[in-house]
Amino acid sequence: MNSPLDTHYAVPGKERGVQFFVRAGWILMLAGAGSFFLWASLAPLDQGIAVQGTVVVSGKRKAVQSLDGGVVSKILVSEGQLVKEGEPLFRLDQTQVQADVQSLGAQYRMAWASLARWQSERDNLDEVHFPAELIAAGQGQNPDPRLALVLEGQRQ
């Protein structure tokens, strides 16, 4: 007869010593470090790094440092080349600046549309009167589809 404490269903297992866990820890640590270094070597860097440089001017050293960071798109001089005052040394990539200008322009036009609606509400007008420049920006040769949606939304 089986007693309630009978453990015949327990399967005897292989006991693992400390050496197994040490080896497993090393394998996990090496796999993690290897994964990090693989990612670090393959991940694209899309940010410029702000660095300092020096320019030798007639035997005197002058420090050159950018006030704002940027990505250099083209270097116009080579090492050891003599340059004149005011001559450009490199060109910065304009992509980020152009995107910022477009974004700020869109924000400005959208704020202008909100102002026109608020003024119409203040004056108890039946419909919103947008400035002609704002309507032209929404319907001109290069219409801004977001502005057209904003103007339509402000009319409601």
The residue ranges in which pLDDT falls below 50 over 5 or more consecutive positions are: none
Order of adjacent strands in the largest pleated sheet: 1-2
Q: Helix and strand string, N-terminal first?
A: HEEEEHHH
- Overall mean pLDDT stands at 80
> Looking at the structure, what is the overall shape?
flat
Strand count, sense and barrel status of the largest sheet are:
2 strands, antiparallel
| Helix vs. strand class | alpha+beta
Strand content: 5-15%
N-end to C-end Cα span: 86 Å
Radius of gyration: 34 Å
Can you walk me through this structure?
This protein has a two-stranded antiparallel ribbon. A two-stranded antiparallel ribbon has the order 3-4. With 156 residues, the chain is of the alpha+beta class. The mean pLDDT is 80. Helix content is 46%, strand content 12%. The chain starts with 17 loop residues before the first helix and ends with a helix. It is flat and about 90 Å long.
